[in-house]
Amino acid sequence: MSHLLRDQAPISEAGWREIDEEARERLAPALAARKLVDFSGPNGWEYSATNLGRVEAVPDAPGENLVAARRRVLPLVEVRAPFQLSRDELLDADRGAEDIELGPLDDAAHRIAVAENRAVFHGWQTGGIVGIAEVSPHDPIPLGEDCARYPRHVAKAIDALLGAGIEGPYGLALGPEAHTRVLETGEAGGYPLLEHLRKILDGPLVWAPGVDGAVVVSMRGGDFLLESGEDLSIGYDRHDADAVHLYLEESFSFRAVTPEAGFALTP
């Protein structure tokens, strides 16, 4: 039996299909980190730690003339976003309704995507994750509110990465406020600012809920590693007469192998 206990939920196969499809649609645009860093997995719920390929000395080996060492690993963190759906709405879905209320699922999908993005880009100290922006050795550049200066800021960031020997292409994670400004701004002659930034980067520009300001990263590969144990999945918790209590869940680790390959643009 799967630990998600989906077969114990009072939800039909058609209902599960509707829920899973809605979750995929909501998660896909919000999972910004996965579009910019190396993603591996899923390795399964039982996968507990990422091998770091290193050891640390262990004193007092249990015997004479022995040298002992302990393998170093990075434990995966588990994140769960609970939500509940109306049983009446789920029954209406079985009857063929196409406008059922799945707002709580949408909210849970946004919350867990924001959590993953924040962990990757800004870190999660208690989860043992150091983020790209906080580990970068480059002095951050304030974005400000003048979008006309954004191309200059991004160009300076890329110049700093090149100076550190970090090749492109490059990607840009834009926090919601900065992303909105970019979408609404046209440069002289009406040329979209969005397209100008993409040309400078030679890579993607993504909407990144959970990011403060923006982060430029090299996408040459091997610098930032996001490893998945259980990929985002929906499980069953309990139900009552009115609602079914569910959750979105994942487990993952993140490593900034090359801190020089990222550059923070602060709000």
Give a short summary of the structure.
With 267 residues, this protein is of the alpha/beta class.
In terms of quaternary structure, what is this?
single chain
Q: Using only CA atoms, what is the Rg?
A: 22 Å
Order of helix and strand elements from N to C terminus: HHEEEEHHHEHEHHEEEEEE
> Can you count the beta strands?
12
Low-confidence stretches: none
| Strand content bin | 25-35%
Structural class given helices, strands, pairing? Answer: alpha/beta
Report the sheet with the most strands, covering strand number, pairing sense and barrel closure: 5 strands, mixed
Number of DSSP helical runs: 8
> Outline, from the CA principal axes?
flat
Mean pLDDT: 95
For the record, give the distance between the C-alpha atoms at the N and C termini, rounded to a whole number.
Answer: 47 Å
Helix percent reads 25-40%
Overall description:
There is one protein chain. The protein is α/β, with parallel strands linked by helices and 267 residues long. The chain has eight helices and twelve strands. The chain has helices at residues 13-30, 33-36, 87-94, 103-122, 132-135, 150-163, 176-184, 193-201; strands spanning 38-40, 49-58, 68-75, 77-86, 141-142, 170-174, 205-207, 214-218, 224-228, 233-239, 243-256, 262-266. Strands 1, 4, 9, 10 and 11 form a five-stranded mixed beta sheet that branches. A five-stranded mixed beta sheet has the order 5-12-8-6-7. It has a two-stranded antiparallel sheet with strand order 2-3. β10 and β11 (243-256) form a beta hairpin. α1 runs parallel beside α4 and α6 packs parallel to α8 (193-201). It is flat, with a radius of gyration of 22 Å. The N and C termini lie far apart (47 Å). The model has no long low-confidence stretch (mean pLDDT 95).
